[in-house]
Structures are given as C-alpha cells and as structure tokens.
Amino acid sequence: MAETLVVESQGLLADYLSSLRPLVTVICTSYNHERFITESLQSVLDQTYPMVELIVIDNHSSDQSVDRVEDLRQKYPQIQLIRNTENLGICRAFNQGLKLAKGKYVIDLSADDVMQRERIARQVAGFERLAGDYAVIFSNAAYIDENSQLTGYHYPINASGLSTITVPSGWVFKEILASYFVSTPTMMMRKDVLESVGGYDESLSYEDFDFWVRTARNYRYHYQDEVLTSKRMVRNSLSTLFTDRQNSLLSSTLKVCYKAFDQCQTTEEYQALAKRIRWFIRQCFYAEQFELAFRFKELLEFIEKPDFQTALILRLCKWRIPVNALYRRYAEWQQKRQIAKGDVRLLV
C-alpha cells in the first residue's frame, strides 16, 4: 500500500515545452536516507535542463527522510511523493515510479547519490544524437564518502577528466556478462525500453545486472566520457552487502545468470558468463552460502567443467569453512587502501 502525493504538470504549456525538449523523469528511491536525501534531490532540482519530472518513492523509512522531502516540497511543490506503508524493495519501488513517469527518458537515482548540474542536459543532448537502437547512455562517476568528500572515480581519469581506460560502448552484451563496468547511477534509460521489458524484475533483490542482461542483447549502450554523477560509498550500501552471510543478492544473481545463459549465442559469450559464474561461486564461499555455490556450479557445468581453482573453492564449501568474518575484514582493508590511492572500484 502507498500514499501518492502528486502535483500535475502545467497543462498545455508543459505539453508544448516537452515537444521541444524531451521530458526526463528522475525516479528517486529512498529508505532511511535522512542524512543525504536533501542533497540528492537538490541536485535534481538544480539541473540546468528545464524539462525534469521528479518522483520520490519512500520505502517506509523509519527516520526523518519523508520530513526532508516534505521540507523541499514546500518550495518545490512539483515533486511527486509516494509514501509506502511497507518496504517493497528497490525493484517494486522503482516500478511504482515508472508507472507514473511521463518522460521520454528515465534516471534511477538513489537518495544518497548526487548529480552534476549539467548532467541531464549533457545526457539528453547525447541521447538525441544516437540511433534508435540505443537504450542506455551512461558516464563516468566520482566516488564520494559520507561527508561528500571525493575518494576516487569509477574509471580512472587523466588531467582533462577523460577515462584512461577503454570503456565498452555499443553492443555490450558480452562485456555485461564478463564484468561490472557500467556505473548504475550514471545511466539514463529510454522509458519505452523499460516498459517493453516490464520494468525491473520484482522477484529480485537488486536491479541493474538483470536490466543489463535483458536489454543489452537487443539494444546498444553509449558511453559518454564525462564525470556527471557522484556515487556515495556508505556502510551497508547495496554493493557491500554481497559479503553478508544472510544476503539475498547472490540468489537473485543466480536467477539472472540463468536468464543470461538462455540469451548467449556465441562461444565468447558463454565463456564470459562462465568467468562471471566462477567469480560468483567465490562470493558464495566468502558469504558462507555454501549450498548456493553448488547451484551456481550446476549452471557452470552446462558451459564448462570447473577449473582447478573453482573445484578447490567448491571443496572448501563442502567442508563449510567459516571464512566470512576474515573476508569482511580483508574487504574493508582493501577498500580503505583503494580510497587512499584514489582508485576506488566496486567488485560486484
């Protein structure tokens, strides 16, 4: 159940302006983001691009997140707010916003991330120059800490702010299978593509890997070599929960891997998926989700026989070696080391 607070667009004037410049809908999902949500929403409201629709979905926060949104609504009554009476999860909450969205393009914004003022203008300009088979435009991202201090970049940059590595662009299905390379909060997506795949899969605990797998087969992705978003790295963020013993992310990932397997067409794509499955088997071991590791093994064996290292990890899973506490300490040390070097990269 949810309570929806909506201010309708300004009629004919809004329709006329939208015909000149495409409307962009920003869907911001929030759960206990009291500390960060004002900065996040203000970064949307401060965009230089004029045609922006902002929809906020609060997933039954227990802190003052809703109060922060209501404070902003006093000054910006065009903000649409959905207040859920229970936590529906990220995917269902986003789909609530998608049903209300009127924009040609959609941005999925977490309530702790921050957009640069020119982001929407730059991405719309880029999207409008692309062919019709492009579904996503994405960019580089800065990483910031809980105090909004810069800690690094998704892709390392040179003095001109350009990536020093080659970022996949175009037909990227194989690359999507092989590694995490798209910075999720930087994406702008075509709403019609989102609707064609039914929005996010609400049976899953997280959204991005599944969305990539279901769209990159038939649509192209475009990389825009600019830093347009700041992604906040906080404790207990989704990217850090993969190491939790009770996390549901890995079981969701297995479902997505089966979807990916069904869509593979070439030897290279199967090999890329196999490489990713081997990595997820290790994550199951570190999270002490031993039975799940063997379910990943079943899928891997449709592609190839487990290599020596994977077979060893599976043997350790069979012995139920308790490694989670030690691995979490290592992961925290590694992240601090990366921050000190200014080379922060997510591992999921």
Description:
The chain has helices spanning 11-20, 37-45, 65-75, 90-100, 119-128, 173-178, 191-196, 208-216, 249-263, 267-286, 290-300, 308-318, 324-341; strands at residues 2-5, 24-30, 52-58, 80-84, 105-110, 114-115, 134-144, 150-153, 188-190, 220-232. Strands 1, 2, 3, 4, 5, 6, 7, 8, 9 and 10 form a 10-stranded mixed β-sheet that branches. It folds into 2 domains: 2-234, Spore Coat Polysaccharide Biosynthesis Protein SpsA, Chain A (Alpha-Beta Complex); 241-324, no CATH class. The model has no long low-confidence stretch (mean pLDDT 91). The chain is of the alpha/beta class and 348 residues long. InterPro entries: Glyco_trans_2-like, Glycosyltransf_2, Nucleotide-diphossugar_trans. One of its GO terms (molecular function) is transferase activity. Keywords: Transferase. This is Glycosyltransferase.
Short structural description:
This protein has 348 residues and is of the alpha/beta class. Helix content is 42%, strand content 18%.
